[in-house]
Task: structure prediction
Amino acid sequence: MTNPSATGRGVWSSKTGFILAASGSAIGLGNIWRFPYMVGEGGGAAFVVIYLGFVFLLGAAVMLAELALGRHTDRNAVGAFAATAPGTLWKLVGMLGVITGVAILSFYAVIAGWTVGYLFKTVTGSFSQTITAQESQAIFESFAASPIANVGLLFVFLAVTSIVVWRGVSGGIELVSKTLMPVLLALLVLLAIRSVTLSGAGAGLEFYLAPDFSRISAGTFPAALGQAFFSLSLGMGAMITYGSYVSKKINLVTSTGIICLFDTLIALLAGLIIFPALFHAGLSPESGPGLVFQVLPTLFAELPAGQLFGAAFFLLLAIAALTSTIALLEVPVSYVIDEWGWSRGKAVAATAIVTFLIGVPSALASGAVPFFSDLPGGGFLSLMSIVFGSYALTIGSLGLAIFVGYRWGVQAAVAEIESEGVTFGLKHAWGFLLRFLAPVGITAILVYIIATQNYF
Result:
C-alpha cells in the first residue's frame, strides 16, 4: 500500500496539529535533561527568571522570523534563503541548518537511546535496591561503554523516527505529535505532583522558585540565552521547515506564543520533578549533565513506588526525545525532497542511513572505543555537541536574525505575518528585537563560548 504522503511535501491539517508538532520539536531532552542541570549550575530560580525573559523576548522573536520565512517560501531551510535572496551566499545559512540538523540528530539519538536503555533497566529492577552515587556512576559507565547496546539503541531510535517521518507531515509527524504531546504533559504533571509531596521538597522548591540574585554571575546571561535557543530548536532550520507546511490562515504570532509557552511549561514542570526529589534525598542540584542518568537512579529505591516513578520518568524522556528527533530528521528530508526531487521514502531512508553512520562514533565514544572516547573536547559525542550544539546553532540563529532583519526585511516579514487579515500589534517592537537585540545577544553567546570554554 502506497503512503499518500510519499511523494509530496505535505501540509499541517490543523493549527492544533502544527502547534503540537512544533512544540514537540522544541520540547525534548533540552527541556527535561538539560534545563534542570543548567538551572542547578546557574544558581536556581535567578537563572529561571533570566531564562524566561530570553525565551519570550529574543527566542520568540527569532522563532516567529523562522516560521514567517518558511511559510512565505514554502521551502526547506536552504530553499527558503535561496528563494528570498537568489544568487547570493545566504543559502549557506540554510545549508548550515541542514548539516546541523543531521549532526545533532546523530548524537542526540545516542542520548535518546540511553533513555530507552534506562527505561528497561528501571522496569527490570536495576534500581529497586538502594545504590550509592558511586555505584550509579559505575552502572552508567558500564552501560555507556557497551558497543552493542549503544549502537543497537541508536539504530532502534532512528528506525522509529524514520517510520514517523516517512508517514509524512499530517499522517506521521502531526498524528504522532497529537498523541504523544498530551501523554508527555500528563506524565509530567503526575510526576511533579508526586515529587512536590516528598518530605524535604520545600527546600527544593525554594531553590527552584525563590530567586536569589546574588547567585548570578557573568556567565549566567549567555548560559540562559543559550539554553533558550537550544530549547526552542532555533538556528537549525526546523522552524523554517515546519513553517513551510503552515497554511496562510494560521496566525503565526499566536502560534509562536503558544509554542514558547508550552515549551517553557514543560521545562518548568521538569524542574518541579527533579529539584524536590534531589533535596528530598539530600543530593546536590549542581550535578551537571549526569544529573538524570547518574544521580536520579539513586533516588528510586528511596521513593515510595520508586520503580514506577523511575520507569515513568525515563518513558517521559524517551517520548520527549522522539518528538525532537522527528523534527531533526524532517529538516534534511525536506531539503532532499525539495532540492533533489526525491520521494519522501527515498529521502528518509538515505538521510537516516547517513545519520546512523555519523552517529556510530558518538555511540562508541563513552568508553567503548578509546579512539572516539579520548578525542579533544571530551570524546566524539561531546565534540559533536560542542561544534554543532553550541557553535553551529548560535551562528545559524545569528544568520537568521540578520537575514530577516536586514536582507529580506522586517517590512516584508510583517507582510507575511499579517496575511489573511492578521493584525500584528507588536510589529515595531518585534522588528527592533530582531534587528538589534537578537544579533547583539546571540553574538554575546558566541563570544562568551569562544572566550571562556577551553574545549580544545
User: Anything to note?
Assistant: Residues 380-417 form the longest helix (38 residues). The domain at 15-105+155-290+316-452 is CATH 1.20.1740 (Amino acid/polyamine transporter I).
